[in-house]
């Protein structure tokens, strides 16, 4: 049985006190959603320790949105995987399209970040996805295949067991445009096939999340698809009520 996961990517939103309130709201409502769903919240680095405190005893996991490619040392402004792990993070989002696009993250950097994540006991949520031009040119399968082959194929079988993939079509992120449930299923099944070519049956255990304008009104239809194991949620993760309602998408 694959895990069902709803992860919130808060991006560069909320001031520290607002983040704590949001986390408390999610924790308070968590009991109203099936225990079969694993919730993860990924606040900005600055709120990790206070949000960790607010989540204590809730069963909701903490994640970071990024980590450094290097272990430690003279890397001004960077935050290491060991630092976020020490604050209670269990997950780290890596390869988000905004980081690939605005901060020049390449497969080379991501291989190093993945290594740091595993060395510190973190589970990466590795993001893949095509942009609009690539989708319109019918290249989306090739794009995600390359993003997986260049990074995920370098993992050991043991590391692969602790990996979450998020498929996020860039044209659907923050745009209000959602991939149809059929489009999501088609590419999720393809991603699983690419994973199984390297990792065999273990690919059946890997959670593959959908991300891109997922909200309470469309989550149930998308999550009903066989190869969609949950969502990576941006905008709708900023309201506890909406975030929790997305988790209820598994109950319909
Ligand atoms: C994201 O950036 O991870 C995301 C899915 O954003 P949104 O839900 O706002 O489209």
Number of helices: 11
List how many beta strands DSSP finds: 8
Task: Report the sheet with the most strands, covering strand number, pairing sense and barrel closure.
Answer: 8 strands, parallel, barrel
Radius of gyration: 17 Å
Strand order of the largest sheet: 1-2-3-4-5-6-7-8
For the residues shown, what is the average pLDDT? 97
In terms of structural class, how would the helical and strand content be classed?
Answer: alpha/beta
Approximately how much helix is present in the residues? 40-55%
Multimeric state? single chain
Percentage of residues in strands: 15-25%
Q: Ends: how far apart?
A: 18 Å
What is the global morphology?
globular
**Which small-molecule ligands are present, each listed once?**
phosphoenolpyruvate
Note poorly predicted spans: none
Order of helices and strands: EHEHEHEHHEHHHEHEHEH
Commentary on this structure:
The chain is α/β, with parallel strands linked by helices. It contains eleven helices and eight strands. The chain has helices at 16-29, 48-55, 81-86, 97-102, 107-119, 132-136, 140-149, 157-160, 181-199, 216-223, 240-247; strands at 4-9, 37-42, 61-64, 91-94, 123-128, 164-167, 207-211, 230-233. It has an eight-stranded parallel beta barrel with strand order 1-2-3-4-5-6-7-8, surrounded by six helices. Helix 10 (216-223) runs parallel beside helix 11 (240-247). The longest helix has 19 residues, at 181-199. It is globular and about 45 Å long. The two termini are 18 Å apart. The mean pLDDT is 97. The site of phosphoenolpyruvate has 13 residues, from strand 8.
